[in-house]
Design a protein that fits this description.
GO molecular function: catalytic activity
Structural class: alpha+beta
Number of domains: 1
Pfam families: HIT
InterPro entries: HIT-like (IPR011146), HIT-like_sf (IPR036265), HIT_Hint (IPR026026)
CATH superfamily: HIT-like
Largest sheet: 6 strands, antiparallel
Shape: globular
Protein name: HIT domain-containing protein
Number of helices: 4
CATH topology: HIT family, subunit A
CATH architecture: 2-Layer Sandwich
Strand order of the largest sheet: 4-5-3-2-1-6
């Protein structure tokens, strides 16, 4: 583990709004606590990173690989009509990448999910079902963290 990973602390707003599912080699995998959408977030475990260009070349490539793998598996597992992937950071400056599997039947379609509707929290049973789905969906490099 390098020094930047040792100093990594998840932004409190992400910690409050999300459920930690596990770690890829670079990123922490979060589930947005809104049962209306399959919505995952990747957060590179690098202290102080607020922009993709703050990452080393190797970390940028790893982030792209992890994001692409997650997006492809989400699209297949959740029958997405469209994958919305984005790094905004206007409210939470810590570098994080949203991955939302969109369907024409979701409550915000075709508009953005941000602020469209008040979030609907997952039940503990729903979270456990998603953990199991993630465990089968993402194999290999993902190590689940028990929360």
């Amino acid at each position: 583990m390098d020094e930047l990973e040792l100093e990594f602390v998840l932004d409190s707003r992400l910690a409050n709004d999300c459920i930690v599912l596990g770690d890829f080699p670079l990123c922490r995998l979060l589930l947005m606590n809104d049962a209306q959408y399959p919505w995952f977030i990747l957060v590179p475990r690098r202290a102080g990173a607020t922009e993709i260009y703050h990452l080393s070349k190797e970390d940028r490539q790893q982030l792209m690989d992890e994001s692409a793998e997650l997006a492809e598996l989400m699209a297949d597992s959740f029958a997405a009509k469209k994958m919305n992937i984005g790094a905004l950071g206007n409210i939470v400056s810590q570098l994080h990448i949203h991955h939302v599997a969109r369907q024409e039947s979701d409550p915000a379609w075709p508009g953005p999910v941000w602020g469209a509707h008040p979030p609907v929290a997952y039940t503990q049973e729903q979270v456990e079902a998603i953990r199991k789905k993630v465990a089968t969906m993402l194999t290999g490099d993902l190590q689940l963290i028990q929360a």
